[in-house]
Write a structure and sequence with these properties.
Elements (H helix, E strand, L loop, with lengths): L2 H6 L2 H7 L3 H18 L6 E5 L7 H5 L4 E6 L2 H10 L7 E3 L12 E7 L8 H11 E12 L4 H12 L13 H5 L6 E6 L8 H13 L7 E7 L5
Parallel strand pairs: 1-2, 1-4, 2-3, 4-5
Antiparallel strand pairs: 5-7, 6-7
């Protein structure tokens, strides 16, 4: 079974986890960071590369942005159509390493937990930069290789057959920053563990962010494409 087929089986499990108490907290924190870095504005044209089920796309759409969702899995996109009912956005089935868009097509580009499944991260990020207009920003978020979550996820894949993260690439914020020649800024969040009590997790998160730790489970980087002189 190839990765694309594995993604096709994953939509329901993916969204169900975010419906759990700790999953809801994780999503709230991750969405907060994405919105902070991306700062989507009304009528801005934004590409969501690797949009999956659209679970994060909805929060960008809520800012009145015009979003185009792209994913390699048709089943993910079909699920997104149901999930985002009443929040219509164009969807494209394609590989984020070869974006089917002209240069400077979008005001901003974002990719959330999709780069884990791309071996050539630099090429994918170059593509996001290419399709973003000068002066626009590119935000990429991924699972952090420096986090204890990554260690547990790798161990879990050893005990399960056909796990979606079996061949995933975990990267730190430093590795992400080095994927582009542009100067970027990075931040990691989700400093608590999956089995922590949600109330205690909030305190741990506040402490981790105040200390600016680089070991959160979720790391995001923001680059700005230079304006034309």
């Amino acid at each position: 079974m190839n990765d694309k087929q594995l993604f096709d089986e994953w939509p329901e499990r993916y969204d169900q986890w975010f419906a759990t108490p700790i999953g809801k907290l994780v999503k709230e924190i991750e969405v907060g960071l994405i919105l902070e870095l991306l700062a989507p504005g009304p009528e801005e044209k934004i590409l969501d590369a690797g949009c999956g089920t659209g679970i994060f796309t909805l929060d960008i759409l809520a800012r009145k942005a015009q979003v185009v969702g792209l994913d390699i899995s048709l089943q993910m996109l079909i699920h997104a159509m149901k999930y985002a009912s009443g929040n219509s956005f164009p969807k494209v089935c394609s590989d984020m390493v070869y974006l089917p868009f002209k240069d400077n097509s979008f005001d901003k580009s974002v990719s959330i937990t999709a780069l884990e499944f791309v071996a050539d991260a630099k090429s994918a990020i170059d593509e996001l930069v290419r399709v973003t207009r000068p002066g626009g920003c590119i935000v990429v978020a991924t699972l952090n290789s420096l986090s204890s979550w990554a260690t547990r996820r790798k161990a879990k894949t050893m005990n399960e057959q056909r796990h979606i993260l079996e061949h995933a690439f975990f990267r730190s914020q430093y590795e992400l920053l080095n994927c582009s020649h542009l100067k970027g800024i990075a931040k990691s969040v989700v400093h608590f563990r999956k089995d922590d009590n949600p109330e205690e997790a909030i305190k741990i998160e506040q402490s981790g962010q105040s200390e600016k730790l680089d070991t959160g489970a979720f790391v995001a980087v923001r680059w700005e494409k230079p304006r034309l002189v």
